[in-house]
## 1
Amino acid sequence: MDEKQFEAELQQKGMHAPRLTPEDIDATIESTLFFTAEDGFYGNDAIMSTEGLPPGLALLTFCVLVLRNGAKVVGINHGSISAANFDAEIGRREALRAAREKVWELEGYALRNRIAAQEHRS
């Protein structure tokens, strides 16, 4: 079940207490960047390797979400076990999913703090 399906289920069940929605998470994201470990290997002049490019770096996909408050969150997809099964689109999608999960955790913590502060004032 994806985020939007889960949100639809909550709405259908009439759950309207304070919570996060996929739109809330989207609103916290300023930019989304993708790159592979191979991109990093070739893009960094400081890397010194006598072996050349280590195998499999093209299968390791990173997603960096830059949040509106300047925080950065990283999601990683380690790629397929067999290079023949690698699909770059799937790697990006899964790295993005992993990064968004971290944003959900951070934003959930922040929302819980706001709720707790209101409860203490009551």
Note: Helices lie at 3-12, 22-28, 37-43, 88-121.
## 2
Amino acid sequence: MIILDRFEGDMAVLETDEGMLEIERSELPDTAAEGDVLVNDDGKWRADREASDERRSRMRDKMRRLLKKNDD
């Protein structure tokens, strides 16, 4: 899985299974956002909206559980 970790100026930092990867921000679609799951199809990057939404939902659930656990 490849995740758009952050933007640093004109660069995009991607988190991959092999480690971090930097690419030109211009290689990504204008709609790409931090936290998106990315797919590279024949050299062209796209955001996988369904996988991104599912990942964000799991992350929100984890945060809620952690915050609730700390409140107990």
Note: The chain has one domain: 2-71.
## 3
Amino acid sequence: MSRFREDHTVTLLRDGFVDEFKQAAKNRSIDLTNANLRNADLRHADLRSADLSGAYLHSADLRGVDLSQANLEGASLHRARISGAYFPADVRAEELRMSVDLGTRVRCIPK
């Protein structure tokens, strides 16, 4: 079984303290690599350029979230709610569909 990252910013997001997360992440890069964000409501979090590589987003609510510059390499979006989300150009629609439907890890197009 894989080990998930458990730090203060991950806990804030997972427990729904989005405003506190924004304060903690202010003026620094958002590193959520290998974070367990299962069932997290991320609709109001600024994740535009977050590093979500390897993150576990099972059943997370990403509706309307701007992920346009985020790193999603290896993230799992199984059963995540993604309507209206803005994904990076290096992630194919087929990858998103397989991740949401089957739980596969996202593969990004090499740059």
Note: The helical segments are 8-14, 18-25, 93-102.
## 4
Amino acid sequence: MIQEFRDFIAKGNVMDMAVGIIVGAAFTAIVTSLVGDLINPIIALFTGGIDFSGWFYALNGESYASLAAAQEAGAPVFAVGNFIMAVINFLIIAFVVFLLVKMVNRIKDAAAKPEEEVAPEEPGPTELQVLLEIRDSLKARG
């Protein structure tokens, strides 16, 4: 059982998956910073300083200074701004992954050497042509 587990762990797919998860976690931190530190301020500039993460609706009808204050008070809230930020994060991640896949495919295509084009062989004589040649050959002998 331990040997099977070692074999399973040693397989390339498991190691590739582990590396992918680790790189994905690091990539998530980069995208979170990109959105929070670069994109949100630009969006806030165009929307008059609105911060999406501050958009929320308290379902108990009371007014709170911030989402954190409402959550600390235990009020049920619709955190609309957090949802919008999650959608923006998804779109950015999806776009970056698209660009990465496109780049990898381009590199793969460039690395794959096109096989030397072999000139197509001319087709041989048809059966009728061979029979006609045999007939002509026999006529010439006889």
Note: The helical segments are 2-10, 12-46, 67-72, 80-111, 127-141.
